[in-house]
Amino acid sequence: MHTHTLEPWQHRHLFLGARHDRHERRTWLVVVLTTAMMIAEVIGGAIYGSMAVVADGWHMATHAGALMIAALAYGYARRHAHDPRFSFGTGKLGDLAAFSSAIILALVSLYIGYESVARILKPVAIDFDEATLIAVLGLGVNILTAWLLRDDHEHHHAHDQDNHRHDKRHHAHHHRDHNLRAAYLHVLADALTSVLAIAALLTGRFYGWVWMDPMMGIVGAGFIAAWSIGLIRSSGAVLLDTVPDPKLAGLIRERLETGDDRLADLHLWRVGPGHTAMVAAIVSDQPQSPGTYKAKLDGIDGLSHVTVEVHRCADHGRA
Questions:
Q1: Across the chain, where does the E strand assignment appear?
Q2: Averaged confidence pLDDT in the chain
Q3: pLDDT one-digit tens code per residue, 257-310
Q4: Are 275 and 14 in contact (CB under 8 A)?
Q5: Residues 71 and 97 placed together within one structural domain of the fold
C-alpha cells in the first residue's frame, strides 16, 4: 500500500479559533499598552508621593502578567498547531491559559478586598488631584484595550440561518474563545476599579467621604471574584471534556437513531473554539458503513472530528 492512498481517510487536527491570528495580534498590543500604563503609574505615583497610585500600578502589573499568558498561549498554539504530539491539536491551550488567568483574577480580587478592609480599619491620606488624574488616564487606556479585545465573532454569525434548530445562545458559547475572554475580563476588571476609584475620589474630595474609597474597593472585588468564578467554570469545563452542548447531543442522536439503528455510546468534547470532537458507537440489526452515518451529520455546525464505529446487534437472528 502506498502512502498516498491513505489521504482520503486522513484529516488535519487544526482546531484553532476562526480569528486566532487577529486575537493574538490584539492581545500583544494590549500587553504593550497595559505595561506602559503600569510603568507610568508606578513612576508617577513615586514622583507625586501617592502610594495609592503606586499600589494601583502594581495591581495593574498582575493583569499585564495575565495578559502576557494569553498572548504567549496564542503564539504557542499557532506554532505547534501541526505538532503530532498533540493528539487533537492545540485548540484547548487557550482554555488552559484562561483557567490560569482566572485563578490570577481571583487572587487579585482577594488582594483588593484585603487592602480595602485594611484601609477601613486604618485610613490613609489620599492625594485626590494626582490620584484622580491617574485613575482617569487608566480608565481611558482600559476603554481602548477593552475595545481591542472585544469578541465580535457572535455578531459575525448573527445572520446565519439556524438550519438545525440549534439555539443561538449555545452557538455563541460554542464559538467563545475563553483565552480572549480571560484577557477581556482582566481589562474589564481594571476598568471597573478605575470607575469605582474615580467615583470614590470625587465623593471624597467634594463631600469628605474618605470611607468611600475602600468601600468601592470591596464592591469591585466582589464583581471581579464573580467574573473569575464564571471563567474558572467555563474554561474548566472544557479542560475536563464536559459535553459542550446538550442540545447538540440531542440533535446527533435524532439524526443517527433512525430505523433499527441505536446509539450505544456517544462522546462529545470541545477541542478548540468552534470545534467539537465526537465518538459514537451504533448498534443495528442491519448496520451500514460508518461513512453512511457520518453523512447523516453533514451540516451540523462545529463538528470537526467525527469517529463512528458500527456493530451488528448480537441478538439479531435469534428467536
A1: 262-272, 275-284, 303-312
A2: 76
A3: 888 889 888 999 888 777 888 899 999 988 888 888 989 988 888 787 888 999
A4: no
A5: yes
d(CA 105, CA 184): 11
Strand order in the sheet with 275-284: 262-272, 275-284, 303-312
64 lies in a domain? yes
Where is pLDDT greater, at 13 or 248?
248
Is 318 inside any structural domain?
A: no
Same domain flag for 26 and 153? yes
List, in sequence order, every residue forming a beta bridge with 307; answer none if it has no partner: 279
Give CA–CA dist 187/143, Å, rounded.
Answer: 8
pTM, full prediction: 0.71
Q: How far is residue 283 from each of residues 243, 247, 266, 280, 303, measured CA to CA in Å? A: 22, 22, 12, 10, 21
Written as one string, the DSSP assignment of 293-317 is: HHHHTTT-TTEEEEEEEEEE-TTTT
- How many Å apart are CA 254 and CA 270, to the nearest integer? 20
